[in-house]
């Protein structure tokens, strides 16, 4: 394993899946698709011809830009697709559970 692989391996294992509120390590960047941002810094979610929301790589997202499993609707993390939030835990706007919304811009680098 080279230096870059060691760093990436350490990073991947430091993401808590599912997130643990007590550790305060959740960051919404862990679940965001590859998306552009507008002049105000808001995520710009793309829709394909069928109206499905997708990121720039073609991965299915919800209206918030969070990556979702196409069969279950669960929000998944963007490194290897592990389930972060089951679909049943999202609110009607597709947002992560409330207690994690408070932490969504956590600048803890894990």
Textual characterization of the structure:
This protein is mostly loops and 110 residues long. The protein has one domain. It has 2 helices and 6 strands. The protein has helices at 3-13, 98-101, and strands at residues 36-37, 43-44, 46-47, 53-54, 75-76, 83-85. The chain has a two-stranded antiparallel ribbon with strand order 1-2. It has a two-stranded antiparallel ribbon with strand order 3-4. The protein is globular, with a radius of gyration of 14 Å. The two termini are 22 Å apart.
How is the secondary structure organized here?
Layout (H helix, E strand, L loop, with lengths): L2 H11 L22 E2 L5 E2 L1 E2 L5 E2 L20 E2 L6 E3 L12 H4 L9
Antiparallel strand pairs: 1-2, 3-4, 5-6
Could you provide a short overview of the structure?
The chain is low in regular secondary structure and 110 residues long. The chain has 2 helices and 6 strands; from the N terminus they run αββββββα.
Which key terms come to mind for this protein?
globular
Low-confidence stretches: 6-12
Number of strands: 6
Return the domain count.
1
| Proportion of residues in β-strands | 5-15%
Characterize the main sheet. Answer: 2 strands, antiparallel
User: What share of the residues lie within helices?
Assistant: 10-25%
Q: Structural class per helix/strand content?
A: little secondary structure
Output the strand order for the largest sheet: 1-2
Using only CA atoms, what is the Rg?
A: 14 Å
| Count of individual helical segments | 2
List the secondary-structure elements in sequence, H or E. Answer: HEEEEEEH
| Alpha-carbon distance between the two ends | 22 Å
């Amino acid at each position: 394993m080279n230096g870059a692989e060691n760093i990436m391996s350490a990073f991947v294992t430091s993401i808590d899946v599912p997130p643990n509120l007590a550790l305060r390590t959740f960051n919404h960047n862990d679940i965001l698709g590859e998306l552009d941002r507008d002049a105000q810094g808001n995520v710009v979610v793309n829709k394909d011809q069928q109206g499905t929301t997708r990121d720039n790589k073609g991965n299915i997202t919800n209206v918030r830009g969070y990556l979702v499993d196409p069969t279950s609707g669960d929000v998944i993390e963007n490194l290897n697709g592990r389930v972060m939030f089951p679909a049943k835990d999202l609110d009607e706007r597709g947002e992560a559970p409330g207690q994690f919304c408070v932490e969504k811009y956590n600048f803890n680098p894990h």
